[in-house]
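The instructor's notes for this session suggest beginning with a concrete chain rather than abstract definitions. Hand out the sequence below and ask the class to guess, before any prediction is shown, which regions might be ordered.
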Amino acid sequence: MSKTNTTKRIFDVIRFVMQSQHSPNLSDIQKSLGIPKSTLHGMLQELCEADILSYREDGKAYSVGTELIQQSAYCLSKVNLIEELKIVAAELGKELNCNVSCGVLDKRNVVYIFQSSSNQVAVKNAGLVIPAHACSIGKILLSQLDDAAIRSLYENVTLELFTERTISSIDNLIAEINDVRKNGYATDVAEFSPFIACLSCPIEIEDKYMAGMSVTISINNFSEEVVQNMYYHLKKATDRVLQRLGVILDV
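After discussion, reveal the predicted structure:
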């Protein structure tokens, strides 16, 4: 049997147990899905060992396990986070009359969730991938890692250059990330595009940076005064996201 078929069967088993009105036993699952009992028994045993499913000795039946419940809740929280990010990003775009982007870290890259302008939330940049070293969201999300972890992540990696201002060495990247940790925000000044500057703050939940939010302006308008103003509004916006999610903020 191919890995694809095996994976589909496992998913079918999980879905059947989740959607059953009453906890099904092995025979119920086998009759519904047509999986050979010997194969199904092994699948169920592995799923129970991983706490994805739970086996009740008294009724010889299967139900949803604690691990599946926890991961389902995590997925729901991610969906809620994205929706709240979109709402707050649209508000921030109108406040500052600029583009607002949100992204998540995927190893050495940032995957953009969406971008909003002062008029609307756009999905045209959803899925856009930019190297983390070359953008402000990447730097703010990398800053949650310690220096050793960053060096390990970039071991034997050549940093791609996009402009003459793109960070070109791991030492320089770590030096800038140390400043990011001190400031609480990250900047990208003509490092990915020669025409724009960005400033980012993290969305932090339970001591983990779940995503980054950034504001983008023309490089011609970039100054220290503008940075502080952008940071003030961006920090308030990220706090609003957390408040909308019910996260209690430290005073």
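Then share the key points. The radius of gyration is 23 Å. The chain has eight helices and nine strands.
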